[in-house]
Amino acid sequence: PNAESMVRQFLYGQKFYREEFGMHSNILWLPDTFGYSGQLPQIMQICDVKYFLSQKLSWNLTNTFPHHTFIWKGIDQSKVLAHFPPGDTYESDLKIKDVLKTVTNNKDKGRTHDQMLLFGHGDGGGGPTPEMIDRLDRISSINGMPQIVRSTPQRFFETVEKSSKMLCEWWGELYFELHRGTYTTHAKLKESNRVAEFWMTDIEFLASLDLNNLLGCSKKEKSTNCDSALIPLL
């Protein structure tokens, strides 16, 4: 996707957060996207989003990504704190093997001591089950197991940020070596989407002009009409 489209995703996503939750999100949460543009850190900084999470690159076919917690640097040198959960999943069922893998698979030992383990039915929704929560309580009470703390992504990133000076940096695109060619399939649909983006640019330009009397609607009405067309397109 082009940078214009990504900026709009942030714009309308934050608008939704403000209207529904009364807050601004500073975490870009993309566990299941097929690669990430080197433009994203710059766009994130401009949109006041400083943390990034994914786990998709753990599926790489050829080159194993060398970090789980690192500083992601964009093509303009913008920097954000990034984390790929070492458990290599966003839908763990909280079995002991997942907890142990989160510790043993961590490629940034010595630079950070905190890792995130994502659990629940994440692919398709549903969240954690009572059995998973019970399993978490049991594992937490076993001597010799890694220390488990129930927390939020916000608190996790704030904790890691305190020792971020020790972290390595990765510059540019985060390329996903598996689902290749995903931007070339269904070409007609994507061509139509691009044409619609051009139309929306023209509509927004016209709506920005002082044509209230000519159009017979207020600025708020014009903005609402633009939103109702843009959101489905995005």
Describe the structure.
The protein has 234 residues and is an alpha/beta fold. It is built from 8 helices and 5 strands, in the order H-E-H-E-E-E-H-H-H-E-H-H-H. It has helices at residues 3-21, 40-46, 96-104, 130-140, 153-161, 187-208, 212-215, 219-233, and strands spanning 27-29, 51-53, 69-73, 79-83, 169-171. Strands 1-2-4-3-5 form a 5-stranded mixed sheet. The longest helix has 22 residues, at 187-208. The chain is globular. The N and C termini lie close together (10 Å). The model has no long low-confidence stretch (mean pLDDT 88).
* Beta-strand content: 5-15%
Q: What is the terminal-to-terminal distance? A: 10 Å
Structural class: alpha/beta
Number of strands: 5
Helix content: 40-55%
The largest beta-sheet arranges its strands as 1-2-4-3-5
Q: Can you give the mean pLDDT? A: 88
Based on Cα principal axes, name the global outline: globular
What does the largest sheet look like? 5 strands, mixed
Number of helices: 8
Order of helices and strands: HEHEEEHHHEHHH
* Unreliable sequence segments: none
Radius of gyration: 21 Å
Spell out the key features of this protein.
8 helices, globular, 5 strands, five-stranded mixed beta sheet, 234 residues, alpha/beta
Per-chain topology:
Layout: H1 3-21, E1 27-29, H2 40-46, E2 51-53, E3 69-73, E4 79-83, H3 96-104, H4 130-140, H5 153-161, E5 169-171, H6 187-208, H7 212-215, H8 219-233
Parallel strand pairs: 1-2, 2-4, 3-5
Antiparallel strand pairs: 3-4
